Every structure is written in structure tokens, then in C-alpha cells.
Amino acid sequence: DAGVTQSPTHLIKTRGQQVTLRCSPKSGHDTVSWYQQALGQGPQFIFQYYEEEERQRGNFPDRFSGHQFPNYSSELNVNALLLGDSALYLCASSPGLATTDTQYFGPGTRLTVL
Amino acid sequence: EDQVTQSPEALRLQEGESSSLNCSYTVSGLRGLFWYRQDPGKGPEFLFTLYSAGEEKEKERLKATLTKKESFLHITAPKPEDSATYLCAVCALSKSSGSARQLTFGSGTQLTVLP
User: Fold this and answer.
1) Number of domain units in chain A
2) Which residues does chain A have within 8 Å of residue B31's beta carbon, measured at their own beta carbons?
3) CATH code of residue A18
4) B96 vs B5: CA distance, rounded Å
5) Domain boundaries of chain B, sorted by first residue
6) Which residues in chain A touch residue B34, judged by CB atoms under 8 angstroms apart?
7) Closest Cα in chain A to B49
8) Class of B3-108 per CATH?
9) Which domain, by its residues, includes A10?
10) Does A22 reach chain B within 8 Å, measured CB to CB?
11) For each of chain A's 114 residues, which pLDDT tens digit applies?
């Protein structure tokens, strides 16, 4: 049973560029959440997708946007990259919106902004 | 605002030296408390979910407990392979949406077990 997968593994961009990160959820999961983890910190919630709609959003600017496809996979887009966007971006999936469902994380995408 | 504080920030143990990690939280409407293990450069690996005060769960050398204000991760006779960052997260009910699937994480405890 494949777990959560993310691509690419690493990415290097320059300030002002745009980036797209991809996530495939664990088999049987239909809800995808994205998190940003700065070095030495815990993950911070960006947003969550269910039934192809953004259901909740954390305290992140509109430069961060996303999409969920009919097969439940998801993309995270970041526009006008800033140096401070350098971080590990994590995707997590869960089976539905029930509040007690465990979220399972992918390996992450390491984004470096120069 | 939900808050999660983990202590200590870093912990060095000798192999076989048992200890505990603390996670204190302030949240209204707790729906679950989660423990994850994270190795450098990798995604968090799920360990435990606790739902109510008094609940305990065990897995190999790890045991997680929950009270109304904090959770403990007890590590018994640790081995070098237990070295990792241990993250605590809470899931609470969203007042705006009526449901909640976002996790609020602490900053983690970096555990090093020396042989």
C-alpha cells in the first residue's frame, strides 16, 4: 500500500519566481492538507482540500494557493517567491473530514529560494 | 488561539537511560492529540493518537499518556535508533467551520541517544 508521495524531492528557485509542488494521498484517503516547516520548527498549517475545495486555511498570504484533482491528488502553488519561503513543504492525507482521523505525512519537498 | 509547547527542546540520553518528553497544550475543544517522530529531512512518522484524559498507548519502547493539560511521551531503555525529533500536535474544533482537520504543532524535542 503506497503511502503519501510528494514531488519533487528538492527544488531551487530564485526570488520572484513561481513554484508548483505535487502530492498524491495515501490509498483510500480523500482529504489533503499542506504544511510549511521551517528549520528547527514544527509544521505550520497552510490549507486543506476536500472534494476539490479549500476547506480551511491557515495564516498564509494569497501567494499560496492550491488545487485538488478528482483523483484526490493535490498541488501547492507559491507565487512571487520570497527568501522566507525556503522550507520543507509537507503534504498530509486523511480519510475524510472527521476530526479524529490521523493525518499521514509524505516525505516533503525541500524548497530553497535564492 | 491553540498553543502547544514542548519541553525540553533537546535531550541527550545514554542508551538504556529512560526519560520523558512533555507536551503542554492550550486549546478549546480538543479532538485529538498526536505524537509524531521525524528524522532529519524527512516527513513526520505517525506514532500515537490520544483522544481523552487518562488514555495511554504503547508501542515498543514508547508510551504516550494524556491529561487535560499535557501529554507525556515516556521512553523506556532507549536505543540509538530512537534518536529523532518528536513532535506533538493537537487537533481542535474550528469555531468558524464547525469542523477541524488542521493540526497545531509544537516545535518538537530533539532526542539524541548515545551508545
Assistant:
1) 1
2) 99-100
3) 2.60.40.10
4) 24
5) 3-108
6) 102-103
7) A102
8) mainly beta
9) 5-113
10) no
11) 679 999 999 999 999 999 999 999 999 999 999 999 999 999 999 999 999 999 889 999 999 999 999 999 999 999 999 999 999 999 999 987 765 688 999 999 999 999
